[in-house]
Amino acid sequence: ITKPISATSNQIGAKMGKSSGTCWFFVCLNVDAGVVTAAQNGGITKISTVDYRTKNFLGIVQRHECIVTGD
Questions:
Q1: What is the pTM of this model?
Q2: In contact, 53 and 1? CB cutoff 8 Å
């Protein structure tokens, strides 16, 4: 599932950054799927949009991902 979380009045930029982490049986260790980390990974200083994506494999493995666009 991918869902929009936030949008600003900034124009859609050419850069995209992602942060992600994987959880096993609802145990999440050292997972950083945050907006700030995603922006830093993409070299973004002016955020345009933020999307959040989750993938679930039989309730055993869950993948969390934050996707940020901007300049």
A1: 0.85
A2: yes
